[in-house]
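Two quick folds needed for the group meeting slides. Do the first one here.
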Amino acid sequence: MGRSPEEIIGKKCYEVFHKKSAPWSKCPHHKTLSTGKPCVKEIEDPAMGGTFLISNSPIYDSNGELIGTVHISRDVTEIYKMRKQLAVTERKAALGEMAAQVAHEIRNPLIPIGGFARYLENHLKGELKNYANIITEEVNRLESILADILSFVKESRIEKSPANINTLLEDTIRLVKNVTSKKGNRIIKNFYPGSIIVNIDFNRMKEAILNILINANEATEKGTITVSSALVDESTVCITIEDTGRGIKEEDLKKIFDPFFTTNVRGTGLGLTIANKIIEEHGGSIEVKSQIGRGTKFNILLPIKDEEV
């Protein structure tokens, strides 16, 4: 526990371990005292910084009177985390399987609908042509949503090759310039002055960066989106995408990488999920900071080898 005898002797357990001035209501000790029976309980304790399996057994004197309890606590934080992660993985797998089936069922009739709509668009005039154009646009939007769903659920194969991080960013920025200018947003580039060569799947990583840039653009109106690259140290490169948009609520920050979570009416909630998945497949991670009304900052950390810098 890292406590000296002076910190423990003569103190109540709730003072030493739970940092409370009164008995902790969650402690199974109370139930054992009231029932006279053993009690086992798993408790998450913020003061202790983990999850603990606590076992309480009653102690009786020679007259059969309950005089106390034996309290055994086991740190099961890592087991709890693994169990929680397993539950998330299983839920995502089930969700992915269902989403893939739904996507395929929708895509089958969507193909002829889109084909006939484009045919009508080319052969009609006036108001009817406009109606056909609306159908075509909505079909394109649905196809984009289905592509996101299938990209999320499919088993991806990463094929790495040496690539310049700045080239990756330049190519990706080129893809979003039109949509950013339509919203009055300006992209600022702040690249590392030298070359940073890393082993990545260029197209997959471009997809990840593109999704984050699109997310930044959707959250920003007549502002700036700054794209930076830097060497954190000899083994890590950092890509930063920072916008001056509306920001993300604190309670939403933990959910932004969850499948289908979105605050955008027209969004699928898969863009950031896919980006996070791709970056993790490269052994990297994403850090997100945000302030309401001031913007959001994504730091993408990717590993590099000494000989690749």
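Then this one, please, same format:
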Amino acid sequence: MIQLTETLLNPEVTRRGLLITGGRPPSPPLIDQARQCCHFTLCADSGAACLFRMGIFPDLIIGDMDSLAPDIYAELQKSHCQTVVLPTEKDYTDTQVALEWLFDHDYEEVVLLGGTGSRWDHSAGNGFLLTGFGRRNKPIVMWDAVNAMRYISPGHYRVPASDHRLSLVPTDDAGIGLSLSGLYYPLEGADVPFGQSLLISNEFSEPYASIELMRGDAWLFVSRDA
């Protein structure tokens, strides 16, 4: 069984990285919360602006620097902040390259901030990065002010109750098989096809929700209304 936290982290992880990327800027309290549970802070391109405005310098910046304001980039260079500059024309996003760097440097889990925003293509692409990396046993948890999202594969998971709603979205085109307990809408040995909304917005009814995923993979969310 994998016991997750309210924010869907695996508490057994001893080496966790933080990646701040260039979507909707995370709030200073959310950044502080993430930094407290992470051991290294990497920014992808304009994600560095959030930290700069808080007077914080990241451990590393990766990106083509096309969306980071020139004056902020100049100040970061003056601070001797370590930087990896990527070409503007490349096959993968700055976010994916930064994630690969963290896992290549033995971080066991990554918290991703700024992964959603006004660009739906980037938001959807970042969601599926959770699936792509997760299928390689490289877990990512994406946070914003009101949501936490994690990819899960077959196994037994427990999530502590909170005032958030719990949702699952199948990401396997063959659907998923699962059982749910500790929730207002329990299920036992249910088959849920891909592309269905059956598992959206469940409520906690006991101190812990239990998710037994027997087949397929999915996105797990805990969310509250803004």
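Slide caption for protein two: The first strand starts at residue 2 and ends at 3.
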